[in-house]
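Pilot study result, target chain (146 residues):
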Amino acid sequence: MLPDANISLLLIENDPACLEICRKIIEKVFPELSVHTALNPDEARDLFKDQHHDIVVSDIFPPRKDGIQIAREVCKLNPDTLVIFITGDTDVTWDSLKPNARKLCLESVIHKPIDINEIIDKVKETVAIVHNRNHAPEPHSAPVSP
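Predicted structure:
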């Protein structure tokens, strides 16, 4: 299944080299995705306000703003967005975030050091969720009797 051309991903990473490497890999593996990047939470917020992205991949502790705060803002602007957190903190797990997952639009957590195959797998799973949601049959009203 190829992703829809209209599925967009926002990648937030404060390390320019890491941001560029991740962007190139995601674009190569998922050429149909529209990939946008931000070096900081403020830039990410501005990009997100201009175009509500379907998927946001963000470090949970970027400089100047907590990733959880970013996720709350994203979720408030577009509750259909799915967030993938990347963290080097081993105490931050899916189980620790699960009680707030809905408020954060959280889909999954990836731990550092980054395994690019894990990122690809998580993005692939998340793209499938967005694709299925975008192509879910619309509910039909009751048939009208002749």
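One observation from the pilot: The chain has a mean pLDDT of 86. A full batch analysis is planned for the follow-on phase.
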